[in-house]
Amino acid sequence: MSEINVQGRVIASNSDYISLTDIAKHKDEENPRFIIQNWIRNRNTVEFLGIWELLYNPDFNRVEFEAVRKQAGLNSFVLTPQKWIEATNAIGVTSKAGRYGGTFAHKEIAFEFASWVSVEFKLYLVKEFDRLKEAEFRQFGWDITRSLTKVNYLIHTEAIKENLIPPKLTAKQKGAVYANEADALNTVLFGMTAREWRERNPKLEGNMRDYADVSQLVCLSNLESLNAVLINDGVPQGERLEKLNAVAISQMRILVDDSRILRLESQNEKHGETK
Q1: How far apart are CA 153 and CA 209, in angstroms?
Q2: What is the pLDDT of residues 118-146, one digit of tens each?
Q3: Alpha-carbon distance 265 to 91, whole Å?
């Protein structure tokens, strides 16, 4: 569950669903459910909801929808979100009771409701919702890049364990081999070992990979996979370093000029500024 601030009002959002209850409070703080009921019983609203369900919901009950549509507009017609969902098997609107409940609707429906409440409020809602999704995308882009590197590092260390570590080595000796292979990639890509980086940057926390840009992380992920293959093939480290260095130079030349990488890097920098 996420929250967005629209003109000083907090609106809850769950993935692509937005709280109609919170939007309704913009018009009536005490009785938001009455605002929602007045909107949903409107004939135009029923038509809109029906078309949305026909487009996106293969299990939509068309027979019941026709029954509801025929009654819409009559003075005696009453409709609530719960009745709409139960009658038509709708998925565009959800409604739950309780402390963490409320009525939510898919963003396309929520924006339509917001227009009914206030056109100005709807425009600010769309703007803030888009900003929220952009922030989530930036976080996702950064996390998936880091996760990809970690997954490939696991493949890399398993290849080292199976091919470079004799079974009689102590845990300390094994760690030295891992560090040696990690530093081999550090040297290929960053031009220095982890120790050399720490000596040059004594005030920084973490390691050089924590300060790598997106292009370097993508390249590092590829190098780890390639190095694992070369290790499995029994290629000596000296020969592997030459191959990996050539690959790193070639890939970095491509990546630094890739507009998609540059865009992701720009988004990542903005994300870092907001942390």
Answers
A1: 12
A2: 999 899 898 888 888 777 766 655 566 66
A3: 37
The answer to whether the pTM exceeds 0.85 is: no
The residue type found at 143 is D
Report the greatest alpha carbon distance in the chain: 86
Angle at 134 between CA 149 and CA 267, to 5 degrees: 50
Tokens representing 192 are: 């220095």
- B/e letters for 207-225, b = 16+ CB within 10 Å, e = fewer, are ebbeebbbbbbbbbbbbbb
Within 99-236, where are the H helices? 107-117, 119-163, 171-190, 194-200, 214-232
- 102 — alpha (psi -120 to 50), left (phi > 0) or beta? left
pLDDT score at 222: 87
Residue 80: band (very low, low, confident or very high) from pLDDT cuts 50, 70, 90 = very high
Q: What is the DSSP letter of 102?
A: E
Which phi and psi (to 5°) does residue 56 adopt? -115, -10
Residues in the chain: 275
Give the 3-state secondary structure of 196-230: HHHHHCCCCCCCHHHHCCHHHHHHHHHHHHHHHHH
Distance between CA 14 and CA 249 in Å, rounded? 43
C-alpha 252, offset from chain centre: 26
| pLDDT tens for each residue of 87-122 | 999 999 998 876 667 899 999 999 999 999 999 989
d(C-alpha 75, C-alpha 260), whole Å: 56
% residues pLDDT > 70 (the chain): 75
DSSP state of 98: S
Q: Residue 275 above 80 pLDDT?
A: no
